[in-house]
Amino acid sequence: MEVSRTDPDVLYGAHAGMLQTSRDAGHPWVIDGPAPARLIDIATSARDADTLLDATETGLLRSTDRGATWVQAHPAAAPVSSVDISADEDILAFILGVGLVQAEETTLDWAVLSNAFGDGYLLHLARDQNDPMQQYAVNGQAEMLASQDGGATWEMVARS
Q1: Across residues 11-40, what is the average pLDDT?
Q2: Domains of the chain by start residue, with CATH
Q3: What predicted TM-score, i.e. pTM, was given to this entire model?
């Protein structure tokens, strides 16, 4: 489930293989159609309430029409375990076998920030809204990681 970054009344969610939206803060929900197969994570655009990025087991997908159609947003056809879009239109995604990648939402010109995770992967990404260089992640081994340089290097700060 994800709240639109441009309109807090717009919510997106996936349930039972269907993409659902609410345009009035969750009161009625509408089924928009099938969600992308093997959906893992959803991120909403910082520019447009109708634009989504979906992390799936087969790649990172983008829709500009509330999920009616999807196109590949990153060339790797590999599992994407997490995706996040900041208020300043900066996309972070973790792609297995590629690493942590970053692009501006308008260009989708991707750069690898870090590929030092080996066979590991990141499940959740979060950023300090006041300091985008400060980032946090949880990996597949239930370790909390922190980066103070925008995701280039990471250190473990807690393990569950």
Answers
A1: 89
A2: 2-115 (2.130.10.10)
A3: 0.90
